[in-house]
Model the fold of this input.
Amino acid sequence: MLLVHGGTADRTHWLPLVPPLAERFSVDAMDRRGRGLSTDEIGPYSIEREAEHVVGVVKAAGSGGNVIAHTDGAVCALGAAFVTSAWSSDAPELMHSQGVIATPCRVPRMVSSSRVFVEDDR
Done:
């Protein structure tokens, strides 16, 4: 399971949840670009690049395709599912499931898969 922090946080945001999750899952928490121990992005910033970074960490960590993400990290994780075709038939193991918490924006243009349901109560 990969944990993706939001906003100006870093991977340590998830520390209180790691022990109980680790009882059932292999758990990794990433630092998004320019936060925590990660390096700054080279070139212009984009959600698509952050989405690619999420997929890269899923691949490197072997996180089993389960992602939990918060706020801006949730936008990056949703982008990982769609922008980078992580849920394509060529690599279904990359994104098995996602839990997104407090997404800060509407995402209907990104929702193009029957495997995802996004509810927006605004």
Summary: The two ends are 29 Å apart (CA to CA). Residues 108-122 have pLDDT under 50 and may be disordered.
